Amino acid sequence: MADQSIKILRGRLLTFQTCPQGPDDVSAYSYEPDGALLISDGKILKRGTYSDVLTNAPDGTQVVNHQPHLIVPGFIDTHIHFPQAQVIASWADQLLDWLNDYTFPAEIRFAEKAHGKRIASEFYNALLSNGTTTAVAYCSSHPNSVDAYFEEAEARGMLMLGGKTMMDRNAPPELCDTAQSSYDDSKALLSKWHGRGRSHYVITPRFAITSTPEQLEAAGTLLKEHPACHLQTHINENHNEIAYTQELYPDAAHYLGVYESFGLLGSKTLLGHCIHMTGHELQVMRETRSIAVFCPTSNLFLGSGLFDKSGMESAGIRTAIATDVGGGTNYSMLRTLDEGYKVLQLQRQRMHPLTSFYWMTLGNAEALSLSDRIGTLEPGTDADVVVLNANATPPMALRMETVETLSEELFVLQTLGDDRSVVETYVSGSPSKM
Ligand code: GUN
Ligand code: ZN
Protein backbone atom coordinates (compact mmCIF):
# COMPACT_ATOMS: atom_id res chain seq x y z
CA MET A 1 0.00 0.00 0.00
CA ALA A 2 1.12 3.55 -0.63
CA ASP A 3 2.99 5.08 2.29
CA GLN A 4 0.77 7.91 3.55
CA SER A 5 3.52 9.73 5.46
CA ILE A 6 5.46 12.57 3.90
CA LYS A 7 9.22 12.18 3.56
CA ILE A 8 12.29 13.43 1.80
CA LEU A 9 14.77 11.13 0.06
CA ARG A 10 18.15 12.81 -0.23
CA GLY A 11 20.83 11.63 -2.67
CA ARG A 12 22.36 12.14 -6.09
CA LEU A 13 19.35 12.28 -8.42
CA LEU A 14 19.41 11.07 -12.02
CA THR A 15 16.35 11.05 -14.28
CA PHE A 16 15.85 11.23 -18.04
CA GLN A 17 13.71 13.51 -20.20
CA THR A 18 14.42 11.75 -23.48
CA CYS A 19 16.79 9.22 -25.09
CA PRO A 20 20.38 10.57 -25.00
CA GLN A 21 21.58 11.15 -28.55
CA GLY A 22 25.22 10.69 -27.54
CA PRO A 23 27.63 10.94 -24.62
CA ASP A 24 27.45 14.74 -24.57
CA ASP A 25 23.67 15.10 -24.79
CA VAL A 26 23.20 16.75 -21.39
CA SER A 27 19.73 17.96 -22.37
CA ALA A 28 18.45 14.36 -22.25
CA TYR A 29 18.74 14.02 -18.48
CA SER A 30 18.80 15.85 -15.16
CA TYR A 31 21.54 15.14 -12.65
CA GLU A 32 21.47 16.80 -9.23
CA PRO A 33 24.50 15.93 -7.03
CA ASP A 34 22.77 17.02 -3.81
CA GLY A 35 19.18 16.41 -4.72
CA ALA A 36 16.00 15.40 -3.00
CA LEU A 37 12.55 14.01 -3.68
CA LEU A 38 9.55 15.00 -1.58
CA ILE A 39 7.30 11.94 -1.41
CA SER A 40 3.82 11.48 -0.03
CA ASP A 41 0.94 9.06 -0.58
CA GLY A 42 2.91 7.03 -3.12
CA LYS A 43 3.69 10.00 -5.35
CA ILE A 44 6.67 12.25 -6.01
CA LEU A 45 5.49 15.74 -5.02
CA LYS A 46 8.66 17.66 -5.69
CA ARG A 47 12.16 17.19 -7.10
CA GLY A 48 15.04 19.61 -6.66
CA THR A 49 18.13 20.46 -4.72
CA TYR A 50 18.11 19.16 -1.16
CA SER A 51 18.13 22.66 0.32
CA ASP A 52 15.22 23.80 -1.86
CA VAL A 53 13.09 20.71 -1.17
CA LEU A 54 13.84 20.90 2.57
CA THR A 55 13.04 24.62 2.80
CA ASN A 56 9.63 24.12 1.19
CA ALA A 57 8.68 20.91 3.01
CA PRO A 58 6.32 20.91 6.02
CA ASP A 59 8.12 21.30 9.37
CA GLY A 60 9.30 18.00 10.81
CA THR A 61 9.30 16.11 7.50
CA GLN A 62 11.39 12.94 7.86
CA VAL A 63 14.62 12.97 5.83
CA VAL A 64 16.08 9.68 4.60
CA ASN A 65 19.65 10.47 3.67
CA HIS A 66 20.94 8.23 0.88
CA GLN A 67 24.05 10.27 0.14
CA PRO A 68 26.46 9.48 -1.47
CA HIS A 69 24.30 7.04 -3.44
CA LEU A 70 22.48 7.56 -6.73
CA ILE A 71 18.68 7.81 -6.78
CA VAL A 72 17.13 6.76 -10.10
CA PRO A 73 13.66 5.68 -11.25
CA GLY A 74 12.75 2.05 -10.46
CA PHE A 75 13.81 -0.39 -13.16
CA ILE A 76 11.24 -1.78 -15.59
CA ASP A 77 11.44 -5.34 -16.96
CA THR A 78 9.28 -5.59 -20.08
CA HIS A 79 9.33 -9.39 -20.57
CA ILE A 80 9.59 -12.06 -17.88
CA HIS A 81 7.94 -15.41 -17.14
CA PHE A 82 6.57 -15.68 -13.61
CA PRO A 83 6.16 -19.52 -13.76
CA GLN A 84 9.78 -19.97 -14.81
CA ALA A 85 11.32 -19.08 -11.46
CA GLN A 86 12.31 -22.75 -11.14
CA VAL A 87 13.32 -23.03 -14.81
CA ILE A 88 16.10 -20.44 -14.74
CA ALA A 89 19.52 -22.11 -15.05
CA SER A 90 18.28 -25.33 -16.70
CA TRP A 91 20.89 -27.09 -18.86
CA ALA A 92 19.02 -27.39 -22.14
CA ASP A 93 19.48 -27.28 -25.86
CA GLN A 94 17.89 -24.43 -27.80
CA LEU A 95 14.41 -22.93 -27.50
CA LEU A 96 12.05 -25.74 -28.49
CA ASP A 97 13.85 -28.44 -26.47
CA TRP A 98 14.18 -26.08 -23.53
CA LEU A 99 10.42 -25.46 -23.64
CA ASN A 100 9.52 -29.15 -23.84
CA ASP A 101 12.12 -30.51 -21.41
CA TYR A 102 12.02 -27.92 -18.64
CA THR A 103 9.55 -25.09 -19.14
CA PHE A 104 6.28 -26.88 -19.80
CA PRO A 105 6.78 -29.35 -16.89
CA ALA A 106 7.48 -26.43 -14.53
CA GLU A 107 4.43 -24.49 -15.74
CA ILE A 108 2.13 -27.48 -15.17
CA ARG A 109 2.66 -27.10 -11.41
CA PHE A 110 0.84 -23.73 -11.49
CA ALA A 111 -2.48 -25.52 -11.76
CA GLU A 112 -2.27 -25.43 -7.98
CA LYS A 113 -2.98 -22.01 -6.48
CA ALA A 114 -0.78 -22.68 -3.43
CA HIS A 115 2.22 -23.26 -5.69
CA GLY A 116 1.54 -20.02 -7.57
CA LYS A 117 1.30 -18.11 -4.31
CA ARG A 118 4.59 -19.45 -2.99
CA ILE A 119 6.44 -18.71 -6.23
CA ALA A 120 4.82 -15.27 -6.53
CA SER A 121 6.18 -14.28 -3.14
CA GLU A 122 9.73 -15.35 -4.09
CA PHE A 123 9.42 -13.86 -7.57
CA TYR A 124 8.51 -10.42 -6.23
CA ASN A 125 11.29 -10.63 -3.64
CA ALA A 126 13.74 -11.26 -6.48
CA LEU A 127 12.43 -8.33 -8.53
CA LEU A 128 12.63 -5.89 -5.63
CA SER A 129 16.09 -7.07 -4.52
CA ASN A 130 17.24 -6.17 -7.99
CA GLY A 131 15.58 -2.76 -8.13
CA THR A 132 12.81 -3.77 -10.51
CA THR A 133 9.58 -2.03 -9.56
CA THR A 134 7.49 -2.88 -12.64
CA ALA A 135 7.51 -6.00 -14.82
CA VAL A 136 5.46 -7.41 -17.67
CA ALA A 137 4.98 -11.12 -17.08
CA TYR A 138 3.60 -14.21 -18.72
CA CYS A 139 1.70 -16.19 -16.11
CA SER A 140 0.92 -19.87 -16.81
CA SER A 141 -2.17 -20.94 -18.74
CA HIS A 142 -4.01 -21.49 -15.43
CA PRO A 143 -6.21 -18.57 -14.32
CA ASN A 144 -5.06 -19.37 -10.77
CA SER A 145 -1.56 -18.25 -11.63
CA VAL A 146 -2.82 -14.84 -12.76
CA ASP A 147 -4.66 -14.37 -9.48
CA ALA A 148 -1.54 -15.36 -7.54
CA TYR A 149 0.53 -12.91 -9.59
CA PHE A 150 -1.75 -9.89 -9.21
CA GLU A 151 -2.68 -10.61 -5.57
CA GLU A 152 1.01 -10.40 -4.67
CA ALA A 153 1.46 -7.20 -6.72
CA GLU A 154 -1.52 -5.64 -4.99
CA ALA A 155 -0.24 -6.59 -1.54
CA ARG A 156 3.05 -4.85 -2.35
CA GLY A 157 1.53 -1.82 -4.09
CA MET A 158 3.40 -2.54 -7.31
CA LEU A 159 2.52 -1.47 -10.84
CA MET A 160 2.64 -4.81 -12.63
CA LEU A 161 1.45 -6.04 -16.01
CA GLY A 162 0.69 -9.63 -16.91
CA GLY A 163 -1.74 -12.16 -18.21
CA LYS A 164 -2.78 -15.74 -18.68
CA THR A 165 -0.75 -17.54 -21.34
CA MET A 166 -3.08 -18.67 -24.13
CA MET A 167 -1.93 -22.00 -25.66
CA ASP A 168 -4.08 -24.67 -27.25
CA ARG A 169 -1.68 -27.00 -29.10
CA ASN A 170 1.85 -28.41 -29.27
CA ALA A 171 2.16 -28.55 -25.49
CA PRO A 172 1.24 -31.06 -22.75
CA PRO A 173 -2.53 -31.44 -22.28
CA GLU A 174 -2.27 -30.09 -18.71
CA LEU A 175 -1.24 -26.72 -20.16
CA CYS A 176 -3.57 -26.59 -23.13
CA ASP A 177 -6.74 -24.52 -23.09
CA THR A 178 -9.02 -24.08 -26.10
CA ALA A 179 -9.68 -21.05 -28.26
CA GLN A 180 -12.99 -20.51 -26.49
CA SER A 181 -11.83 -21.21 -22.92
CA SER A 182 -8.74 -19.04 -23.37
CA TYR A 183 -10.94 -16.20 -24.58
CA ASP A 184 -13.41 -16.65 -21.72
CA ASP A 185 -10.75 -17.02 -19.02
CA SER A 186 -8.66 -14.11 -20.32
CA LYS A 187 -11.74 -11.90 -20.51
CA ALA A 188 -12.78 -12.77 -16.96
CA LEU A 189 -9.26 -12.13 -15.63
CA LEU A 190 -9.02 -8.90 -17.58
CA SER A 191 -12.32 -7.72 -16.12
CA LYS A 192 -11.15 -8.65 -12.65
CA TRP A 193 -7.65 -7.18 -12.74
CA HIS A 194 -7.20 -4.54 -15.43
CA GLY A 195 -7.26 -1.12 -13.78
CA ARG A 196 -7.70 -2.56 -10.27
CA GLY A 197 -5.18 -0.55 -8.22
CA ARG A 198 -1.98 -0.50 -10.25
CA SER A 199 -2.60 -3.75 -12.16
CA HIS A 200 -2.62 -3.91 -15.97
CA TYR A 201 -3.86 -6.97 -17.82
CA VAL A 202 -1.87 -8.18 -20.85
CA ILE A 203 -3.48 -10.42 -23.50
CA THR A 204 -0.91 -13.22 -23.81
CA PRO A 205 -0.95 -15.72 -26.69
CA ARG A 206 2.37 -17.54 -26.08
CA PHE A 207 3.48 -17.75 -29.76
CA ALA A 208 2.20 -19.00 -33.09
CA ILE A 209 3.40 -22.59 -32.52
CA THR A 210 1.25 -23.11 -29.42
CA SER A 211 -1.86 -21.38 -30.78
CA THR A 212 -4.31 -22.54 -33.41
CA PRO A 213 -5.55 -19.91 -35.87
CA GLU A 214 -8.83 -19.94 -33.92
CA GLN A 215 -7.01 -19.01 -30.72
CA LEU A 216 -5.05 -16.17 -32.35
CA GLU A 217 -8.35 -14.93 -33.72
CA ALA A 218 -9.81 -15.01 -30.19
CA ALA A 219 -6.80 -13.03 -28.94
CA GLY A 220 -7.37 -10.46 -31.70
CA THR A 221 -11.04 -10.17 -30.79
CA LEU A 222 -10.13 -9.61 -27.16
CA LEU A 223 -7.64 -6.90 -28.08
CA LYS A 224 -10.21 -5.18 -30.27
CA GLU A 225 -12.72 -5.27 -27.42
CA HIS A 226 -10.13 -3.98 -24.92
CA PRO A 227 -7.76 -1.65 -26.80
CA ALA A 228 -6.45 -0.22 -23.52
CA CYS A 229 -4.78 -3.56 -22.77
CA HIS A 230 -1.35 -4.60 -23.92
CA LEU A 231 -0.72 -7.78 -25.89
CA GLN A 232 2.48 -9.81 -25.64
CA THR A 233 3.88 -12.72 -27.61
CA HIS A 234 7.16 -14.10 -28.99
CA ILE A 235 8.56 -13.87 -32.51
CA ASN A 236 11.66 -14.71 -34.59
CA GLU A 237 13.72 -15.99 -31.68
CA ASN A 238 15.11 -19.23 -33.11
CA HIS A 239 15.54 -20.75 -36.59
CA ASN A 240 13.70 -24.01 -35.76
CA GLU A 241 10.84 -22.00 -34.26
CA ILE A 242 10.56 -19.92 -37.44
CA ALA A 243 10.61 -23.00 -39.72
CA TYR A 244 7.92 -24.74 -37.64
CA THR A 245 5.76 -21.61 -37.67
CA GLN A 246 5.99 -21.50 -41.46
CA GLU A 247 4.80 -25.14 -41.58
CA LEU A 248 1.86 -24.37 -39.30
CA TYR A 249 0.90 -21.16 -41.11
CA PRO A 250 1.85 -21.88 -44.75
CA ASP A 251 -0.20 -18.99 -46.12
CA ALA A 252 1.58 -16.31 -44.10
CA ALA A 253 4.18 -14.24 -45.96
CA HIS A 254 6.36 -14.32 -42.85
CA TYR A 255 6.13 -14.90 -39.08
CA LEU A 256 4.92 -11.38 -38.32
CA GLY A 257 2.28 -11.81 -41.02
CA VAL A 258 0.65 -14.47 -38.82
CA TYR A 259 0.14 -12.01 -35.98
CA GLU A 260 -0.77 -9.20 -38.38
CA SER A 261 -3.49 -11.27 -40.02
CA PHE A 262 -5.24 -11.75 -36.67
CA GLY A 263 -5.06 -8.06 -35.72
CA LEU A 264 -2.52 -8.57 -32.95
CA LEU A 265 -0.18 -5.69 -33.83
CA GLY A 266 -0.31 -2.13 -32.53
CA SER A 267 1.28 0.41 -30.22
CA LYS A 268 0.60 -1.76 -27.16
CA THR A 269 1.97 -4.97 -28.66
CA LEU A 270 5.18 -6.30 -27.11
CA LEU A 271 7.05 -8.74 -29.34
CA GLY A 272 9.71 -10.70 -27.48
CA HIS A 273 13.05 -11.29 -29.24
CA CYS A 274 12.67 -10.04 -32.87
CA ILE A 275 16.11 -11.42 -33.74
CA HIS A 276 15.73 -12.90 -37.22
CA MET A 277 13.58 -10.27 -38.93
CA THR A 278 13.00 -9.80 -42.66
CA GLY A 279 12.89 -6.35 -44.25
CA HIS A 280 9.14 -6.52 -44.71
CA GLU A 281 8.63 -7.54 -41.11
CA LEU A 282 10.59 -4.48 -40.01
CA GLN A 283 8.35 -2.30 -42.15
CA VAL A 284 5.20 -3.80 -40.61
CA MET A 285 6.66 -3.35 -37.11
CA ARG A 286 7.24 0.32 -37.82
CA GLU A 287 3.86 0.92 -39.42
CA THR A 288 1.98 -0.71 -36.56
CA ARG A 289 4.22 0.90 -33.86
CA SER A 290 4.70 -2.53 -32.29
CA ILE A 291 7.56 -2.88 -29.82
CA ALA A 292 10.61 -5.12 -30.25
CA VAL A 293 11.75 -6.46 -26.88
CA PHE A 294 15.46 -7.26 -26.53
CA CYS A 295 16.20 -10.11 -24.08
CA PRO A 296 20.00 -10.38 -24.10
CA THR A 297 20.70 -12.95 -21.38
CA SER A 298 18.06 -15.26 -22.82
CA ASN A 299 19.24 -14.82 -26.40
CA LEU A 300 22.78 -15.78 -25.38
CA PHE A 301 21.74 -18.58 -23.01
CA LEU A 302 19.48 -20.30 -25.57
CA GLY A 303 21.90 -19.55 -28.42
CA SER A 304 19.13 -17.71 -30.22
CA GLY A 305 21.09 -14.91 -31.89
CA LEU A 306 21.99 -11.25 -31.73
CA PHE A 307 19.36 -8.48 -31.50
CA ASP A 308 20.11 -5.67 -33.97
CA LYS A 309 19.35 -2.53 -31.95
CA SER A 310 20.74 -0.11 -34.52
CA GLY A 311 18.87 -1.85 -37.31
CA MET A 312 15.63 -1.59 -35.35
CA GLU A 313 16.14 2.06 -34.56
CA SER A 314 17.14 3.04 -38.08
CA ALA A 315 14.00 1.25 -39.30
CA GLY A 316 12.00 3.47 -36.90
CA ILE A 317 10.93 0.62 -34.62
CA ARG A 318 10.22 1.13 -30.92
CA THR A 319 12.31 -1.05 -28.61
CA ALA A 320 12.40 -2.21 -25.00
CA ILE A 321 14.79 -4.31 -22.92
CA ALA A 322 14.00 -7.21 -20.61
CA THR A 323 15.34 -10.18 -18.64
CA ASP A 324 13.12 -12.99 -20.03
CA VAL A 325 13.72 -15.08 -16.90
CA GLY A 326 13.76 -18.17 -17.03
CA GLY A 327 15.23 -18.31 -20.57
CA GLY A 328 17.05 -15.25 -19.26
CA THR A 329 19.64 -15.95 -16.60
CA ASN A 330 19.30 -13.06 -14.17
CA TYR A 331 16.56 -10.93 -12.59
CA SER A 332 18.89 -7.93 -12.55
CA MET A 333 18.38 -5.24 -15.18
CA LEU A 334 22.00 -4.21 -14.52
CA ARG A 335 23.23 -7.69 -15.47
CA THR A 336 20.83 -7.59 -18.44
CA LEU A 337 22.32 -4.32 -19.71
CA ASP A 338 25.82 -5.71 -19.30
CA GLU A 339 24.98 -8.71 -21.48
CA GLY A 340 23.08 -6.45 -23.88
CA TYR A 341 26.15 -4.28 -24.22
CA LYS A 342 28.17 -7.36 -25.24
CA VAL A 343 25.54 -8.52 -27.75
CA LEU A 344 25.76 -5.09 -29.37
CA GLN A 345 29.58 -5.03 -29.21
CA LEU A 346 29.64 -8.21 -31.31
CA GLN A 347 27.81 -6.21 -34.00
CA ARG A 348 30.03 -3.13 -33.63
CA GLN A 349 27.20 -1.25 -31.94
CA ARG A 350 28.38 0.46 -28.76
CA MET A 351 25.70 1.43 -26.27
CA HIS A 352 26.60 4.41 -24.06
CA PRO A 353 25.81 3.97 -20.32
CA LEU A 354 23.50 6.99 -20.37
CA THR A 355 21.50 5.23 -23.08
CA SER A 356 21.45 2.02 -21.01
CA PHE A 357 20.08 3.75 -17.94
CA TYR A 358 17.55 5.66 -20.05
CA TRP A 359 16.45 2.38 -21.66
CA MET A 360 15.66 0.43 -18.49
CA THR A 361 13.81 3.39 -16.95
CA LEU A 362 12.10 6.01 -19.14
CA GLY A 363 12.73 4.08 -22.38
CA ASN A 364 10.90 1.01 -21.15
CA ALA A 365 8.16 3.21 -19.64
CA GLU A 366 7.68 4.91 -23.03
CA ALA A 367 7.59 1.52 -24.75
CA LEU A 368 4.76 0.58 -22.37
CA SER A 369 2.98 3.96 -22.83
CA LEU A 370 3.33 4.44 -19.06
CA SER A 371 5.86 7.27 -18.86
CA ASP A 372 3.25 9.54 -17.26
CA ARG A 373 3.40 7.23 -14.21
CA ILE A 374 6.76 5.37 -14.03
CA GLY A 375 10.33 5.39 -15.32
CA THR A 376 10.96 8.97 -14.22
CA LEU A 377 11.43 11.14 -11.12
CA GLU A 378 9.09 13.85 -12.43
CA PRO A 379 6.76 15.38 -9.82
CA GLY A 380 3.27 13.91 -10.10
CA THR A 381 4.50 10.43 -11.01
CA ASP A 382 4.50 7.31 -8.84
CA ALA A 383 7.25 7.10 -6.22
CA ASP A 384 8.93 3.92 -7.54
CA VAL A 385 12.59 4.64 -6.97
CA VAL A 386 15.89 2.77 -6.67
CA VAL A 387 18.96 3.74 -4.66
CA LEU A 388 22.25 2.50 -6.16
CA ASN A 389 25.75 2.12 -4.72
CA ALA A 390 28.57 1.86 -7.26
CA ASN A 391 30.98 0.91 -4.45
CA ALA A 392 28.97 -2.11 -3.33
CA THR A 393 31.75 -4.71 -3.65
CA PRO A 394 35.54 -4.50 -3.23
CA PRO A 395 36.20 -4.81 -7.00
CA MET A 396 33.67 -2.05 -7.65
CA ALA A 397 35.16 0.19 -4.97
CA LEU A 398 38.64 -0.33 -6.41
CA ARG A 399 37.47 0.58 -9.90
CA MET A 400 35.52 3.56 -8.55
CA GLU A 401 38.77 5.06 -7.17
CA THR A 402 39.62 6.01 -10.76
CA VAL A 403 36.14 7.10 -11.87
CA GLU A 404 35.66 10.80 -12.59
CA THR A 405 32.35 11.16 -14.42
CA LEU A 406 28.71 10.15 -13.99
CA SER A 407 28.84 8.12 -17.22
CA GLU A 408 31.84 6.17 -15.96
CA GLU A 409 30.03 5.45 -12.70
CA LEU A 410 26.95 4.22 -14.56
CA PHE A 411 29.13 1.96 -16.65
CA VAL A 412 30.71 0.47 -13.50
CA LEU A 413 27.21 -0.15 -12.10
CA GLN A 414 26.11 -1.80 -15.34
CA THR A 415 29.23 -3.90 -15.82
CA LEU A 416 29.96 -4.97 -12.23
CA GLY A 417 26.68 -4.32 -10.43
CA ASP A 418 23.84 -6.63 -9.40
CA ASP A 419 21.46 -6.87 -6.44
CA ARG A 420 24.33 -5.97 -4.10
CA SER A 421 24.40 -2.50 -5.69
CA VAL A 422 20.74 -1.94 -4.88
CA VAL A 423 20.71 -0.17 -1.50
CA GLU A 424 16.93 0.30 -1.39
CA THR A 425 13.92 -0.08 -3.64
CA TYR A 426 10.95 2.20 -2.97
CA VAL A 427 7.54 1.10 -4.21
CA SER A 428 4.82 3.76 -3.99
CA GLY A 429 7.15 5.56 -1.59
CA SER A 430 7.67 2.60 0.77
CA PRO A 431 11.07 0.94 1.28
CA SER A 432 10.54 -2.55 -0.16
CA LYS A 433 13.91 -4.20 -0.81
CA MET A 434 13.86 -7.78 0.43
N1 GUN B 1 8.71 -18.76 -26.97
C1 GUN B 1 7.56 -19.31 -26.55
N2 GUN B 1 7.54 -19.47 -25.22
C2 GUN B 1 8.70 -19.00 -24.77
C3 GUN B 1 9.26 -18.89 -23.47
O1 GUN B 1 8.69 -19.26 -22.45
N3 GUN B 1 10.51 -18.34 -23.41
C4 GUN B 1 11.19 -17.92 -24.51
N4 GUN B 1 12.41 -17.39 -24.36
N5 GUN B 1 10.68 -18.02 -25.73
C5 GUN B 1 9.45 -18.55 -25.86
ZN1 ZN C 1 9.73 -15.03 -23.16
UniProtKB/TrEMBL annotation:
User: What gene is it encoded by?
Assistant: guaD
One Pfam family here? Amidohydro_1
* Protein name (Swiss-Prot/TrEMBL): Guanine deaminase
Instruction: Say if the entry is tagged with keyword Nucleotide-binding.
Output: no
Report the enzyme's class at the first EC level. hydrolase
What's the domain of life for this entry?
Bacteria
Q: In which pathway does it act?
A: Purine metabolism; guanine degradation; xanthine from guanine: step 1/1
Q: What is the lineage of its organism?
A: Bacteria, Pseudomonadati, Pseudomonadota, Alphaproteobacteria, Hyphomicrobiales
Relate the protein's function as given in its record.
Catalyzes the hydrolytic deamination of guanine, producing xanthine and ammonia.
List, alphabetically, the InterPro entries matched.
Amidohydro-rel (IPR006680), Guanine_deaminase (IPR014311), Metal-dep_hydrolase_composite (IPR011059), Metal_Hydrolase (IPR032466), Metallo-dep_hydrolases (IPR051607)
Q: Where would I find the Amidohydrolase-related domain in this sequence?
A: 71-429
